[in-house]
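A further point concerns the way the authors explain their paired sequence and structure data. The central task, working out the structure tokens from the amino acid sequence alone, is never made concrete. I therefore recommend that a typical entry be quoted early in the introduction. An entry of this sort, consisting of the sequence and the corresponding backbone structure tokens, reads as follows:
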Amino acid sequence: MEEKKFKYCVIGNIVKTHVDADGTLWYGTSAYTGGTKVFLCGKFWRLSDKNIQVIGLTRGKKYQVHEVPVNLIENVRCSRTFRPWVLSIMDNWECWNEWWHDSKEDQKATKAFVSVWNRKDELNSLKDCLEVMKVTSIYSDSDYWWFLPDNSQLIYESKNKYFLDPAKGKEYDIVEWLTDDRVIVRLRKR
């Protein structure tokens, strides 16, 4: 008998209603009705991102990928999916490597992502802080970490417990380790 294929994933629901900047009441989003379960493409999502790619059953009753504002997603949690249409999109979409898979490490990573997601407002309110992500690529050194504001690569100095930007000579103190591959840092005052 063939074993069922699955992937660990992060799911949430589209908010039932919301009011936009013009005061107009909306039910869900243009692509999804309120309450729709969506699969978050969050492996490389950063705290500063205002939108996230999701897979969900659209108003047209097809599973599709759409970009959704993060504030329109609620009830974010870990799960597994066995749905063939969703797995097919995850495997064949241009950003297939942004989805988790079926390993224990992926299960742990989805739990860590949900933990960070559920604290995103608190973490974004930290003053003068940046989120740094570990680079995992066959093309780069495994000691490099990266943040987008100025596309800098940092090196973690484990002995002194800080991050160094070798190109600019800046040092960053660790504010909080979020996950194994995400850290909040602040520029070190001299």
Summary: Residues 104-117 form the longest helix (14 residues). The chain has two domains: 7-121, 127-187.
